[in-house]
Amino acid sequence: MWRRSSVCGNESECVEVAVCEGRVLARDSKTLGRTPLGFSASVWTDFLHAVAQGELDGL
Question: 3-class DSSP state for residue 49?
Fold first, then answer.
């Protein structure tokens, strides 16, 4: 099941995520035909932490 942030609202240009077989998958809602990116749970958690801490601001 793909999910997107509630911040996206009804927009069609969002990042969507899903959990499948212990991995976090991410895709661009504009290009559903592309293979999604896959991340381990620990890498995804590290990414979310970095975003929350502002470590990726300005990139």
Answer: helix
